[in-house]
Automatic annotation (TrEMBL):
EC annotation from Swiss-Prot or TrEMBL: 2.5.1.47
Entry keywords, A to Z: Amino-acid biosynthesis, Cysteine biosynthesis, Pyridoxal phosphate, Transferase
Protein's name according to its UniProt entry: Cysteine synthase
InterPro entries per the UniProt record, alphabetical: Cys_synth, Cys_Synth/Cystath_Beta-Synth, CysM, P-phosphate_BS, TrpB-like_PALP, TrpB-like_PALP_sf
Homology family: Belongs to the cysteine synthase/cystathionine beta-synthase family.
Length: 297
């Protein structure tokens, strides 16, 4: 009998594609890693499955248990999928201003949603997750402090980028939320070539970009190590949204706002560099933002 893959087997191995029209400097190559090609639609599929699989391996959880996580969206959808694959009840806590598509996708996978107000934000969501765990309602996976989050990118995303660029990558650009993506990829790429420049993005003061954060010091993810990021750039919300719309209209690449921010940063870098190979993470697809109106000029 033939052995066929299950859905978890197709997480990862996402393609990279080159920008064709909006690169300001033709001596540079800007490559976009299309993480929206993952089955639940984002880069978070990788750590979501790994956090659950590794907790199982250690005996921390067993199928049938309840899991809890605070999320701004993509991790929640990915965890809802991973929990469905593995047989867990998933409780997700998120601010109520996240897009309806995100909420609906989590529910479709069978997750139980708990909403906090926009004003309370992710800080309150994270606190509530710990309160629910203390009340015996499940186990918090804690993407913000769980080494299995960056480990997923160290073992998969980083090696893929190195192989896909044949070791020529000079700059890596990623939005920062939990910081798992940039931490894992930075560790791997720096081990291959310490000269690779790692550029992290945070929202400019007053900007609200789903999935990336400017954390208060007391909530800074404990998996974050600032020594692994060579440069931090502030991204303005309007700039990110304009670039996101340009990617759809001029490149045929349909992605979310934080991805627009990552490409905006890559374009800024390209203006100052020569003969560089810049890789940016396109962390999700644009269809989960349609109801917010961000694609309307």
């Amino acid at each position: 009998m033939n052995e066929y893959p299950t859905i978890e087997a197709i997480i990862g191995n996402t393609p990279v594609v080159a920008l064709q029209r909006i690169n300001p400097n033709s001596s540079n190559t800007i490559l976009l890693k299309l993480e929206g090609q993952n089955p639940a639609g984002s880069v978070k599929d990788r750590p979501a499955l790994n956090m659950i699989a590794q907790a199982e391996r250690r005996g921390d959880i067993q199928p049938g248990d309840s899991l809890i996580e605070a999320t701004s969206g993509n991790t929640g959808i990915a965890l809802a999928m991973a929990a469905a694959i593995k047989g867990y009840t998933m409780h997700l806590i998120m601010p109520d201003n996240m897009s309806q598509e995100r909420k609906s996708a989590m529910s479709a996978y069978g997750a139980v949603l708990h909403l906090v107000s926009k004003e309370e934000g992710m800080e309150r969501a994270r606190d509530l997750a710990l309160e629910m765990q203390a009340q015996g309602k499940g186990k918090v996976l804690n993407q913000f402090g769980n080494d299995d989050n960056p480990a997923a990118h160290y073992s998969s995303t980083g090696p893929e980028i190195w192989q896909q660029t044949q070791g020529t990558v000079t700059h890596f650009v990623s939005s920062m939320g939990t910081t798992g993506t940039i931490m894992g990829i930075s560790k791997y790429l720096k081990e291959q070539n310490s000269e690779v420049q790692i550029v992290g993005l945070q929202p400019a003061e007053g900007s609200s970009i789903p999935g990336i954060r400017r954390w208060p010091k007391e909530y800074l993810p404990t998996i974050f190590d600032e020594s692994r990021v060579d440069q931090v750039m502030d991204i303005n919300q309007e700039e990110a949204e304009i670039t996101m719309r340009r990617l759809a209209k001029e490149e045929g690449i349909f992605c979310g706002v934080s991805s627009g921010g990552a490409v905006s940063a890559a374009l800024r870098l390209s203006e100052t560099l020569e003969n560089a190979v810049i890789v940016a993470i396109i962390c999700d697809r644009g269809d989960r933002y349609l109801s917010t109106g961000v694609f309307n000029d």
